[in-house]
Design goal:
By secondary structure, the chain is α/β, with parallel strands linked by helices. It has 3 domains: 127 residues, 3-Layer(aba) Sandwich (Rossmann fold); 144 residues, Rossmann fold, CATH 3.40.50.261; 182 residues, Succinyl-CoA synthetase domains (Rossmann fold), CATH 3.40.50.261. It has 16 helices and 17 strands. The strands form 3 sheets. Strands 3-4-2-1-5-6-7 form a 7-stranded mixed beta sheet, with helices on both faces. A 6-stranded mixed beta sheet has the order 8-10-9-11-12-13, sandwiched between helices. It has a 4-stranded parallel beta sheet with strand order 14-15-16-17, sandwiched between helices. It is elongated and about 85 Å long.
Length: 485
């Protein structure tokens, strides 16, 4: 019971740390949501009491089943509702009998359909919950992931907690963030997908995460809000307390139409949302991939107090492209100073006057073993605020030589990173190998070395474009914090 907190100060504490959970609509059929929600609790080892509710079964997955919630022999903190819409209102009456604190309505096909009968039923559900004093998450949402208390709504989600809190209107997008983010070393404190937001809404969750000591960064996905003033207050408070990275879903005409059918939200004008994020101090991401890039930086790096970047590695063409991309993103790529060049004389006497920023490794030849010293020299220099190092994933050498060089480069990057002189970012393409390519030593080596970098918390990007785009936003965030603390 170690993960269950004895004192619940907020209603959302009962959602993230329930002492007991009832899955209403539990099932032994693998195509049923009631099967998976029950299985998740069992597989992760939820420490509290678990109740399965199904009038047609005596037990499900080894858990005793009860014909109705009213037959459960104790009070219930959290109900996960997986029954059809016509059974929700009677269920709420039973929830009152069991002193249920929170109901997660996985149940969908309500207001988001736009059908008058479904919209009216959704209104009745809200009125009934208000009257009975029951708090609703949803409907039409995946609900809760809290690894600390062993609650989840998906497979392949890390069992160990982290410091990223997530408030997403979309459950599928939240699951994608957690599952893909896990491959980049991201770990999460609490995730809540809130769907149609009949009662508990984005503002309530933002307030909770802003005050949560176990959450250091907030990731958010909004399609629309019901109370704009309340939302802006909560958004500003959250962004003042910790970094907030947000995606606005429904920016274009087709996206606005999709929002209405997804969660029945009112999308609002894009320029209004842009202004709201800017005023609140929220970083806006275009998509899940860019959100993960930013989260990796906040998860691994200290504040960066300038935009001067030293770029190391890659051939001539890659270095030119890297410099262009960095400057186009708003970063500065200063030349090597006379002090750095003087020190280069002792390291690579045949190249010291040829090298620049970016540092082209394709011209090194027999001096390739000096790369570590140059990385450290650039990292130590006061002329740069951070370092991006490109790892040459092309292969002009035999596989044994190439593999050794890649591993040596990663060794060097990790060593510089551990020295903490300057923030270090790596670029190592994962490309798009097909299934048959996975036996190739090249792709296995790249995957192996990316895993090493992730394990050491070195932010690692597929492309230079991704790296500099995220870094420019990261630098701008800390610049704003300096002037608007």
């Amino acid at each position: 019971m170690a993960a269950l907190i004895p004192t619940h100060k907020s209603i959302l504490d009962y959602a993230f740390y329930p002492r007991s959970v009832a899955v209403v609509g539990a099932s032994d059929q693998p195509l049923s949501a009631g099967y998976h929600f029950l299985k998740h609790l069992l597989d992760l080892g939820f420490a509290g009491d678990i109740y399965a509710v199904n009038p047609k079964k005596d037990s499900i997955l080894g858990v005793k089943a009860y014909p109705g919630l009213k037959n459960v022999p104790a009070e219930v903190d959290l109900v996960i509702c997986c029954v059809s819409t016509d059974r929700v209102l009677p269920l709420l009456d039973e929830c009152k009998l069991k002193n249920v604190k929170v109901v997660h309505l996985f149940t969908a096909r309500l207001g988001e359909t736009g059908r008058p009968q479904a919209v009216e039923l959704e209104r009745q559900i809200k009125d009934s919950a208000d009257r009975l004093g029951i708090n609703l998450i949803g409907p039409n949402c995946m609900g809760i992931y809290c690894p600390e208390s062993k609650i989840t709504f998906g497979y392949d989600m890390p069992a160990e907690p982290g410091n990223i809190g997530v408030v997403f209107q979309s459950g599928g997008a939240a699951g994608l963030l957690v599952q893909d983010g896990a491959l980049l070393g991201l770990r999460f404190s609490k995730v809540l997908s809130y769907g149609n937001a009949l009662q508990i809404d984005e503002s309530d969750i933002l307030d909770y995460l802003a005050n949560d000591p176990k959450t250091g960064i907030i990731a958010a996905y909004f399609e629309g809000v019901r109370d704009g003033k309340k939302f802006m207050r909560s958004l500003k408070r959250a962004a003042q307390s910790k970094p907030v990275i947000a995606i606005k879903g429904g920016r274009g005409k087709s996206g606005v139409r999709a929002v209405a059918s997804h969660t029945a939200a009112i999308a609002g004008a894009t320029d209004i949302w842009d202004t709201a994020f800017e005023q609140a101090g929220v970083m806006q991401a275009r998509d899940i991939d860019e959100m993960m890039d930013l989260l990796c930086l906040f998860n691994a790096l200290p504040p960066i107090e300038g935009n001067r970047v030293g770029i190391i590695g890659g051939g001539g063409g890659k270095c030119i492209i890297a410099a262009d991309l960095a400057e186009e993103a708003g970063l500065s790529v200063p030349p090597l100073s006379s002090q750095v060049r003087e020190k280069l004389k002792g390291i690579v006497p045949a190249l010291w006057d040829w090298l620049g920023n970016p540092v082209d490794f394709s011209i090194w030849g027999d001096d390739a073993d000096k790369a570590m010293q140059v990385r450290q020299l650039i990292s130590d220099s006061p002329d740069f605020d951070f370092l991006i190092t490109q790892i040459s994933d092309d292969n002009p050498l035999g596989i044994e030589w190439w593999t050794a060089i890649i591993r040596m480069a990663v060794d060097d990057i990790i060593s510089v990173h551990k020295g903490k002189t300057k923030p270090v970012i790596a670029v190592l393409s994962s490309a798009r190998p097909g299934y048959a390519d996975l036996v190739n030593v090249r792709w296995r080596t790249i995957s192996e070395q990316r895993s090493r970098l992730v394990a050491e918390k070195v932010p690692t990007f597929d492309t230079m474009a991704d790296a500099v785009r995220a870094l420019a936003k990261y630098v701008k965030y800390w610049e704003r914090k300096r002037y608007n603390p």
